[in-house]
Amino acid sequence: MLDMLTRRTGWDRGCRRLVLGCALIAAAPVAPTTAAEDAVALSVDLSKPGAKIDRNIFGQFAEHLGHGIYEGVWVGPDSPIPNTRGMCNDVVAALRALKVPNVRWPGGCFADEYHWRKGVGAGRLVTLNPNWGGVAEPNTFGTHEFMDFVEQIGSEAYLSVNVGSGTPQEAAEWLEYLTTAQPTTLAKERAANGHPAPYRIAYLGIGNESWDCGGNMTPEYYLSQLKAYSRFVRNFNPAQQPEPQRMLKIAVGPGGDGSRWTEWTDTVMKAWQGRSWSWDFDGLSMHSYTVVRWPPSYKSTGFGEAEYAQILKSTLEMDRLVATHSAIMDKYDPQKKVALVVDEWGGWYAPLPGTNPGFLAQQNSLRDAVLAALNLNIFARHAERVRMANNAQMVNVLQAMILTDKEKLVLTPTYHVFRMYVPFQDASFVPVSLDAGTYTQGDITLPRVDAIAARDKAGKLWLAVTNLDPNRSVAVEATLAGIRAKSAAGETLTAPNVDSVNSFDTPSAVAPKAIVAKVQGATLSLTLEPKSVTVISVEQ
Ligand code: AHR
After folding, report:
1. Taking the complete model, does pTM exceed 0.90, yes or no?
2. Which of 46, 161, 258, 510 lies at a CB distance of 3.0 to 4.6 Å from 495, suitable for a disulfide?
């Protein structure tokens, strides 16, 4: 475990100076209006609709790690906790409300030591999980359970296959087992295990962090692996053969800041440009955690404004990282055929005292809600290239949506942001101009306000506005050129303190509340509470 926590010394420390005055937005609840100098003007230009904000950027990551699967998603069919075929009903219901577009499984580092055959059929073998606490892995939650879970929450499967310690043959047989409609021995085994019909696998990750826990490969060595997996690990599901149902393949991409990572992206994308009929990929993965320094030492509870500002400064580095790697991809793929897939992101803090450090258990505060909104906004602003992202991780691990304790469940502040942002799934990005102002804490200066806008399929305009400043509310005057607005309303999420959390005793300490904005002509006015995330829709 020590290895897992100390191995990142080459990673982005996230301490570069933030470029100030980044464009953002503002929406507002009915809170006291601040002094005139605190007002922020923003304008939304509906005449220039941008790219689709792919719903897949709201994806989740579920690894066999700590209580992410066992005692999180999975309680088992014999549990007194209400469940459907072993899946905790409350967790399933909460996730359904998020309209989770895809779930990445089984890892993570776990994926490169996962052997699928141990998780199907009767008499599951008990193996080890050396990456995460060295605990026994019962393999009770395996292929069929994962597919059942994905179906229960109404999502898509994003499988990460074992490149590090597996073989193309093992992965190819897994996909044959899952997807063929032909009466092969593997298909018959699948049917005997309860699923005669081929499964739909929407996304295939070829390796995980192959530059580190996935085998410490050079980009050249990884490429030769990638080509073999891309060629032989096929999806045979007849329903997925025509576009756009085809399974999309995601290659391992960069893991941070610096030349090691730009070289990785360059090497892999250059090879992609020269691809042949026999291999290809559709996405390049990128991992970037908000950690400030390794090993993770920032606390997830009981912190003050200094840590709040430091973490937000670090998280805003995501924009530069995405821009850097997008620019390299543009060199080899100007048509943006390959998506940048940020399939691990989120805050990574010190383990909660008293927990197994390998379980990556942490609380989730209002700070994480702000962090989540800022990252989602960054992905939306890069919607042309960033078409998928996966929060790490879905339940009980790192920046989770949900925390569980036996039959009890808490929806985290991050969960509320994901729920509030549902209308942005597959909506069209709408450019926003904003003089964001600044928020300063010690020697850190950040944009005071951040915002995005989008139009959903029905044509409705949505604004998401975050006030980073924990001390001052912001009056926002938004000019909505191009629409006749009648009214605007939505929800805002804030709490008394930057480190306010939802606990099992106080599960609603951080919960959204309804807000109404004032609309007059083409101007929408609202006041954002300090340290808040607001989403509003405009009725025309
Ligand atoms: O999310 C925890 C771990 O972080 C994943 O297993 C790995 O891919 C990354 O290093």
Report:
1. yes
2. 510
